[in-house]
Amino acid sequence: VMRALIDEHVALGLIFLLYVLLAEMTVMNLLVGVLCEVVNVVASAEKEELMVQYVKSKLLKVLRQMDDDGDEQISKTEFVSMLEHVDACSALQEVGVDPVGLVDFADFIFEDEVDGDSDKQLTFPDFIELVMQFRGTN
């Protein structure tokens, strides 16, 4: 194709060559942009996962210190006393959870769906899942 255009006119060959080079650069830039976006999304997801793991470890440490009955289940009183602990509050704030707002929802969180009693207990994984729903950055 190039030789036919050059035989017709040199300017046509140069314009075609410029078009091919620009198209190649555009496609390369597009691919680099997609690659950068994928790396950014993966890095954000891994950073979020590391932050959640950090909060889990901090809260589990606080729970083990404050667990009165040693069953690693969280009752309403253990929940409220956990949120009075400085390490727990700072860990929750780092992940975007408002500890004060979480205390306000304690009655709702620990209300038993069946009979309406407020003596419900949560396992630690259920507690973490519930707490992560209270983040401002869902």
Mean pLDDT metric: 85
Q: Could you describe the largest sheet, including whether it forms a barrel? A: 2 strands, antiparallel
Bulk shape: rod-shaped
**Total strands:** 2
Spatial ordering of strands, largest sheet: 1-2
Helix content bin: over 70%
Rounded Rg: 29 Å
Order of helices and strands: HHEHHHHEH
The CA-CA distance between the termini, in Å, is 55 Å
Structural write-up:
The chain is mainly alpha-helical and 138 residues long. 72% of the residues lie in helices and 3% in strands. The chain has helices spanning 2-8, 10-66, 76-83, 86-94, 99-104, 106-109, 124-132; strands at residues 73-74, 122-123. It has a two-stranded antiparallel ribbon with strand order 1-2. Helix 2 runs antiparallel to helix 4. The longest helix is centred in the N-terminal third of the chain and has 57 residues, at 10-66. It is rod-shaped and about 90 Å long. The model has no long low-confidence stretch (mean pLDDT 85).
List keywords for this structure.
two-stranded antiparallel ribbon; 138 residues; 7 helices; mainly alpha; 72% helix; rod-shaped; 3% strand; 2 strands
In short:
With 138 residues, this protein is mainly alpha-helical. The chain has helices at residues 2-8, 10-66, 76-83, 86-94, 99-104, 106-109, 124-132; strands at residues 73-74, 122-123.
Helix and strand arrangement:
Blueprint: H1 2-8, H2 10-66, E1 73-74, H3 76-83, H4 86-94, H5 99-104, H6 106-109, E2 122-123, H7 124-132
Antiparallel strand pairs: 1-2
Helix pairs in contact: 1-2, 2-4
